[in-house]
Description:
Largest interface: A-B, 39 and 39 residues
Oligomer: homodimer
Order of helices and strands of chain A: EHEHEEHHHHH
Number of domains of chain A: 2
Shape of chain A: globular
Structural class of chain A: alpha+beta
Number of strands of chain A: 4
CATH architecture of the largest domain in chain A: Up-down Bundle
Amino acid sequence: MKLYDFKMAPNPRRVRVYLAEKGIDVEMVQVDIPAGENLGEEFRAINPRSVLPTLVLDDGTVIDESVAICRYFEELHPEPPLMGTDAKSRAVIESAQRHMEWDGLMSVAEAFRNANPAFDDRGISGSTGVPRIPDLVERGRASTERFFASLNDNLGQSTYVAGEDYSIADITAFCVVDFAKWIQIRAGDQHPHLKRWYAEVSARPSSSA
Amino acid sequence: MKLYDFKMAPNPRRVRVYLAEKGIDVEMVQVDIPAGENLGEEFRAINPRSVLPTLVLDDGTVIDESVAICRYFEELHPEPPLMGTDAKSRAVIESAQRHMEWDGLMSVAEAFRNANPAFDDRGISGSTGVPRIPDLVERGRASTERFFASLNDNLGQSTYVAGEDYSIADITAFCVVDFAKWIQIRAGDQHPHLKRWYAEVSARPSSSA
């Protein structure tokens, strides 16, 4: 089994933090996204979608998308549970985890990618021939600000993103908050709950993954 | 339990088709998105994210995001399985299902929403104060064309989207292909495998849900 990874990017980091929380070791191969290695012939032969992270099983099965990769390991290594333990908790965590993706990760990515000349002609991950759209920089920044406010509200009501237990939703949120530093957005004094939570999750050993 | 639904929108339809496949009846409440009912005070009090579908359990728990809602029912009603049965099939289906969302649904939605005056100031679902961005119409259309080509390739290699069994990935793909009609993109003679599959899935009784 091999996990194609890139140390600097937020999505591969989600899987690395998840694996660290589970104590699972997987062979990693680095693919440099800004240098375009993910779009090169060699990696396209492995995953034509050209996205990271990508997990390749020993039988050749290719699994991309961070949460699908985590799902594979969650089924094989259920302890400690990071995706819920019954119908309600699994659904609540999946719902919260998707809020972190759609409201958070997508917003930061939109602002970051469309402002970055390294992604000229690569306005959508894994694609070429897609121009950057300058208007998305401001849209993404504004969405990120709204996300920080709503995450702060959320964390005013529960210890973790999806309730009283640490879960994969916290992993995504943590990677998003760190990713937002690349667009110069950080938690401020108006986000006391977010800061309390961030101090806690960034003190976990998995945060260095 | 109540499912907040809107008959015309693709995401709520994914859940309705899923429930029809499972033979599950849930009380539905219609919320008119183009008329802005999802952004009104009454629905915001139910789900501040203002998105549909939204499931509210009898204990008041709010679950939004189509796949999270389906996950809840999948755990309670595992037969027939639509989200896999073991680690590998669950991960492969989740991966394929996310391809349908990111490459397909998001592309069509981008073209549809940004071209539609009904969504002035609502460029992102569930939000206000977000201008439409005209450049996203063409980007979304181009991404949709690439999606149709890749879905056709995919369906040239397997009976269904995620392999030899019908799954939630087919439900999302089916709703995306129908949604694309709103932006005047349809499967053509260059998509024989997609047409073969579409004829089959649209003949299922669930397709009218």
